[in-house]
Specification:
Blueprint: E1 3-6, E2 15-18, E3 24-27, H1 37-48, E4 53-58, H2 64-67, H3 70-76, E5 78-84, H4 92-103, E6 107-110, E7 124-129, H5 132-135, E8 146-151, E9 154-158
Helix pairs in contact: 1-3, 3-4
Length: 166
């Protein structure tokens, strides 16, 4: 079955997809630090499903309420592909996450408008944003990875925290 599970991480996102012909994808993982949603919500959910490997992790943008739980996810699971906009954002958390992606040897994919992520059979994943111009925007919300995921007649539009400009 094609499944989308939205995990309650409070503010932010954590959305998990399971694809019918194999494969899975996690979009964001909520806040980190003391209220690490990766540790308290995302990891227990994935482990309860018997998942040990995540085929693709998408960080919509590098703000704490979206990537805070991702360091724990990278610690607890084998992540094959890490997808983000590679937007510049100065924070200790963003730098820590970049280091984890490198040390865990996840394949880093920089998402740009017009790309298709053809990693899953019968699933179409189109990157609708960001463009190169938006990645340099002062407002990092405008550099969000925006995806349209389609299976058969069902589709989902995932927008992160995009604003009017996008």
């Amino acid at each position: 079955q094609f499944r989308m599970t939205v995990l309650d991480v409070g503010q932010g996102d954590a959305i998990f997809f399971e694809f019918p012909k194999g494969g899975n994808m996690l979009i964001d993982a909520g806040k980190g630090l003391a209220s690490d949603q990766g540790r308290w919500v995302v990891a227990p959910f994935l482990k309860s499903k018997g998942i040990r490997t995540i085929d693709a992790v998408v960080a919509t943008h590098p703000q704490e309420d979206h990537i805070g739980g991702l360091p724990t996810v990278l610690d607890e699971f084998k992540v094959k592909n890490f997808i983000d906009s590679n937007a510049s954002y100065r924070s200790k958390l963003a730098e820590r996450l970049k280091g984890k992606v490198i040390s865990e040897r996840a394949h880093h994919v920089v998402a740009r408008r017009g790309m298709s992520l053809d990693r899953f059979k019968d699933i179409k994943i189109d990157v609708l944003s960001p463009s190169d111009e938006l990645v340099g925007d002062k407002n990092v919300n405008n550099a969000c990875v925006v995806l349209k995921i389609t299976y058969d007649k069902t589709s989902f539009l995932l927008t992160g925290d995009i604003e009017d400009k996008v």
